[in-house]
Here is the input.
Amino acid sequence: MTAAPSSSTSPVTQALILAGGQATRLRPYTDTRPKAMVEVAGRPIIDYQLEWLEGHGVEQVVVSCGYKAEVLREHLAAREGGAEVSLLVEDEPLGRGGALRYAATGLRDRTAPYFALNGDVLTWFPLDELTAHHRAKDGLATLALSQFRTTWGIVDVDDQDRIEGFTQSPLLPVWINAGVYLFEPGITPLLPAKGDHESSTFPDLAAEGRLTAYRIDGFWRGVDTAKDVKEAGEEITAMRGGR
Here is the structure.
């Protein structure tokens, strides 16, 4: 049996960010820095994430890292104000699930729920709505989902095999894991000490009916390749009105 979710109505004030991994698909950006420090529209990814979390009342953030950790440490040490941010460095690669479990040891209150973010996502949606949805569904963990946008163009064909037009990179009627979670503290000991939670913990919890989905209605972008850096930068610049 898994631990029951909390019945607290208090806001969630702590979070984890996974900033490990060598991000080989983001080279040359990651030759000298970790993925979380790659700049999109003139700012490191982690700055966007911290600003978003702080804007929703998060007071403590634990960042799990490994590759080029000193670059991230120097950057975070220069920040002024905002949430309390601490860095935990993996002695060896632990995988995403292991990194989450390790980072959770740095939380001030291990009996309280916490947000968790992959270090390569840019998104803006109301975390208080995610929290309310999570508690209403009474799950142990809630996964934020983003509607899938294909990188391929779609050909529109009628029933006579005549091509009617083309749609470039449309949103498809399927949902993907957006790399943003809300966890009850009871999930922490269920995470693998080493390995990926998406191939172990999550399937087990799904079979038990303990995973909840929250569909994002807002901006989301994964930054996994050099092409993503360029396109995400263009999107953010456009949202800012060209600034």
In short: The longest strand covers residues 171-183. Helices lie at 45-55, 69-77, 95-104, 127-137, 201-208, 226-239.
